[in-house]
Amino acid sequence: MIGGSACLAACGAGALMAYEVRGRSATLFAPSVYRGPASRRAIALTFDDGPSESTPDLLRLLADHGVSATFFQCGANVERLPEIAREVAGRSHEIGNHTYTHPKFYFRGPEFMTDELARAQAAIENVTQISPKLFRAPFGVRWPGLGQAQRRFNLLGVMWTVIGRDWKLAAEGIFQRVLPKIRNGAIICLHDGRELSVRPDVAATIDAVRRLIPILKSQGYRFETVSQLLCPTN
């Protein structure tokens, strides 16, 4: 029978492990950031899992408001929809690596993670002529060995300040979840795809973004890519 102190130690170790795997500010397994500097009234919109057939609708909305964003793309989706991936790049948005097949990294070895990053990096480079410098782990899962994979491709991990849970919430729910958590330097995580799904329904995401942008602009926020947010030029 496990003694009280041993049980507490085991629970503490488990909690620490869980934090390092999913905690937004954790950096033990892989270097990452979850916000930009609080000194400027600037924020970053980010979209995961694309490109998808709905991405052009989102791009038109962003263009209407003159907003730049960062798209963390899955290599398999880039190869499936190369013209849309090129459209994202052509509109001067930033493209990040979101792995090739969007797997969970739990209990995966370094070779598996390196291969996922490598295949995504190659797909994005071949299609868009852009070499990503940013990486977002699927489901926010960092695992031992991921840092090694990121360093191989000179990728900085990016978590988020707030995630909209837009894969399951309606537009109002997304809006109410995101807006109160916006602060200077916030990185907002939304989705223009649903993992590797074909023709995913992201209407709720687009409707929420349509509501958020004018309000945040009226509050004085400037929309930047993640790289601009982290390394401002002015």
* Sheet with most strands: 6 strands, parallel
Mean pLDDT across the residues is: 93
Number of strands: 9
Helix content: 40-55%
Specify Rg, calculated over alpha carbons: 18 Å
The structural class is: alpha/beta
Description:
With 234 residues, the protein is of the alpha/beta class. The protein has a single domain (27-230), classed as Glycoside hydrolase/deacetylase (TIM Barrel), CATH 3.20.20.370. Helix content is 42%, strand content 14%. The protein has 9 helices and 9 strands. The protein has helices spanning 4-22, 55-64, 75-80, 82-90, 110-128, 146-152, 171-178, 203-218, 226-230, and strands spanning 32-33, 42-50, 70-73, 94-97, 134-135, 156-158, 162-163, 187-191, 222-223. Strands 2, 3, 4, 7, 8 and 9 form a 6-stranded parallel sheet that branches. Strands 1-6-5 form a 3-stranded parallel sheet, with no helix packed on it. α6 (146-152) links the parallel β5 and β6. α5 runs parallel beside α6 (146-152) and α7 packs parallel to α8 (203-218).
Write the layout of secondary structure elements.
Layout: H1 4-22, E1 32-33, E2 42-50, H2 55-64, E3 70-73, H3 75-80, H4 82-90, E4 94-97, H5 110-128, E5 134-135, H6 146-152, E6 156-158, E7 162-163, H7 171-178, E8 187-191, H8 203-218, E9 222-223, H9 226-230
Parallel strand pairs: 1-6, 2-3, 2-8, 2-9, 3-4, 5-6, 7-8
